[in-house]
Amino acid sequence: MLNERQLLRGQPVAADALTSLRHWFPVTLQGREIVWRHVPDRFTASFFADTLQQQDPAQRYICRTEFDRLTSLEPALMPSAFIFHTSRCGSTLLAQLLTTLPCCIVMSEPPIIDAFLHLHQAEPEASGGSVRLRQLILALGQQRSPKESHFFIKLDSWHIQFLPILRAAFPDTPCWFLYREPDAILASHQRQRGPQMVPGMIATLAAETLEEGDLDGYCAKVLAGFFEAALAHVEHLQLINYRQLPDILWQDLLPRQGLDCTSEQLDRIRQRASFHAKDQSIRFNADAPPISSHPVLQQRAAPLYAQLEQRRIHTLA
Predict the structure, then answer these.
(1) Computed from CA positions of residues 62, 66, 71, 77, in that sequence, does the dihedral angle turn out positive or negative?
(2) Cα–Cα distance between 154 and 137 in angstroms, integer?
(3) Which terminus of the chain is more solvent-facing, meaning fewer CB atoms within 10 Å of its CB: N or C?
(4) Cα(199)–Cα(222) distance, rounded to whole angstroms?
(5) So what's the pLDDT on residue 1?
(6) What is the pTM of this model?
């Protein structure tokens, strides 16, 4: 993922020189300003920030507007679903499969949402609450052509704790929650740790503690927190186990959205599913088993995972 400095690299354009902010997307917040990047093409990379990074440097433009003057852009689509997840559980793959459909706008972990949620957590009154969040999300859902009919947002793994404000902003938007066996998630982070599993990297996870040198224990506590937050709001979530991918997309999720894939589209989805979610040049291989498990994982995360599974299976019955 790119850091903020990389996101902000571009030729500055004065906002008052623009007739509209069409094809400009909010990237992050700096003080009382929203920073925007001009992106004329679809977001198809594994992550929002990767699409920005892949732009020709000569075509990178940024502008700034006052946060308090934000208004939603037209035409914009309402979010079709929010994708919550535990990390390393197939959420990036799901987002990538959706990008194969021309009718879908897919925003994968847009940094502006994380920046807003950090501001909201620190200064609830200054953030503007769900109204301002709604405007930012609608700015991400700009409709480029009449073909685009659905808009999906994959959130960061730690955003499950912010589900209430997202539902306040969009009470009718379905919320999907992807998860996986805790041992398998730990195994993936043992090979390459995400920032949420490194103490101090994600401010919203500051409540978790680390025993000296025990990164696996910290990971287990963070995972338990994700599972607990999901269970606290489970009545608002459609639970999706990693094992259900990719078939659940065309068997259940797309039909619920009123979308039926053509045979050609289904072939394209299946072909994309055979490659690594974050690197389309690498064939997918099943993850290796964990290097080692951890007592906290078995004591805290595993029982919570079992509760989610029980709830999911009961819903299917």
Answers:
(1) positive
(2) 12
(3) C
(4) 10
(5) 45
(6) 0.94
HEC string of the chain equals CCCHHHHCCCEECCHHHCCCCCCEEEEEEECCEEEEEECCCCCCCCCHHHHHHCCCHHHCEEEEEEHHHCCCCCCECCCCEEEEECCCCCHHHHHHHHHCCCCEEEEECCHHHHHHHHHHHHCHHHHCHHHHHHHHHHHHCECCCCCCCEEEEECCHHHHHHHHHHHHHCCCCCEEEEECCHHHHHHHHHHCCCHHHCCCCCHHHCCCCCCCCCHHHHHHHHHHHHHHHHHHCHHHEEEEEHHHCCHHHHHHHHHHCCCCCCHHHHHHHHHHHCEECCEEEEECCCCCCCCCCCHHHHHHHHHHHHHHHHHHHHHHC
User: What is the residue-averaged pLDDT of the chain?
Assistant: 91
Q: Report pLDDT digits (tens) over 207-219.
A: 777 788 899 999 9
Averaged pLDDT in 10-residue chunks for the chain of 317 residues = 73 92 93 93 95 93 87 82 97 96 97 96 91 95 93 98 97 98 94 93 81 90 96 98 96 96 94 82 63 88 97 90
pLDDT at residue 3 in the model: 66
For residues 46 and 92, the answer to whether their CB atoms sit within 8 Å is yes
- Amino acid present at 260: D
Two tokens, residue 115:
């920046």
